[in-house]
Amino acid sequence: MLKRLERDATKADLAAVEALLGDRTPEEDPVGYMQFSSRVRDLTLRLQDIGDGPSTSAEVGLFFGGRPVVGSYGIQAEFGAKAVVEFQALVSSAFAAAEGPLGARGPVPQRDRTQLMLTDIARGSFGFILQQSDDPQLFESPMKAVLSSAIDLIFRVASPDQETFESITEDVDSRVLGSLRSFFKILDEAGATLRIVEDRREFTLHRDEIGLARERTEDAIYDENEGGFTGAIYVLPVGRRFELHPDGGSDALKGVIAPDCLAQLTGGGTEVIPGIIGTIRSVRLRIRELKSRGQQPKKSYTLLSVLDASQQA
After folding, report:
1. Residues 249-308: pLDDT tens digits?
2. Considering the chain, what is the average pLDDT of its residues?
3. Can you give the C-alpha Rg of the chain in angstroms?
4. For the whole prediction, is pTM greater than 0.85?
5. Burial of 24 by CB count in 10 Å (0-12 exposed, 13-18 middle, 19+ buried)?
6. How large is the angle between the packed helices 30-50 and 3-22, nearest 10 degrees?
7. What distance in Å separates the CA atoms of residue 310 and residue 265, rounded to the nearest whole number?
């Protein structure tokens, strides 16, 4: 079971048993008092075993509501299967995109590495618990970070705030946007709602938010290209951020640094190699532009490589 759900369920059970124990005394009900006292000890130990810290493995609970669901009794099989398949496709695309640019067509790279396991049926309302298939990790797994990023994209695309939606340009390419489009289409056509639970947060998407997300992803026009620029480069390696102040005094270009480029700039360490920050360099940037109906185009930049000013990016 998802660690957060297990912890919440155990706390609820403990509160209920403690209330029952509080209504009894050893003199009036010795057997009941003994049984409930034992149960309190067992639940307390269980809470200690679960712990308060987040899980290090990728795991998420998807709770569905609306037309495809009958209370906690069941879910339409076709909808449930399609929704899980599309969610898995989103996670696989997000993982591949984090490793490098994705082609517009063809198989998603390393799909086998990103397969989640359907490990449980969520209790209380109908949903599924998905977890990575690897053994528990001592440290947070890369797959957990990618899953959290995919869930964050779902939240931002469905957010009523336009700026929150537009912020996806740094984190999404055309294949990932396509996966988001398919996922929200399945939910919207079925008349479903969705509650997502992970270790650090949970949120619910109602019908209007799912409809908005579908409209946004279907209306969005997404362009991606690369280009060379020259200017003074500034880097924050911890946040994977850069600023380029182009020659000629035009506005600074800001964005994220690709993993390979960050390794180049830091030599595989945590600090930027001396002699780079503040110097004039030729760089190569990936430029992503998101156009949506009635809104100004939104651009984002990813730093791909840094050369000397005399070299061609």
Report:
1. 778 999 999 888 999 899 888 889 998 999 999 999 999 888 877 777 888 899 999 987
2. 84
3. 24
4. no
5. middle
6. 160
7. 18
> With pLDDT > 90 as the criterion, what percentage of the chain qualifies?
38
Record the tokens describing residue 149, joined without a space: 């990023």
pLDDT band at 189 (very low <50, low <70, confident <90, very high): very high
Number of Cβ atoms within 10 Å of the Cβ of 53: 8
The sheet carrying 127-132 orders its strands as 116-122, 127-132, 59-66, 192-197, 202-205
CA dist., res. 176 & res. 196, Å (int): 19
Answer yes or no: is pLDDT of 31 > 90.
no
Q: Could you list the beta-strand ranges (E) of 126-249.
A: 127-132, 192-197, 202-205, 221-236, 241-246
Check the CA dihedral 44-48-50-55 and report its sign.
Answer: positive
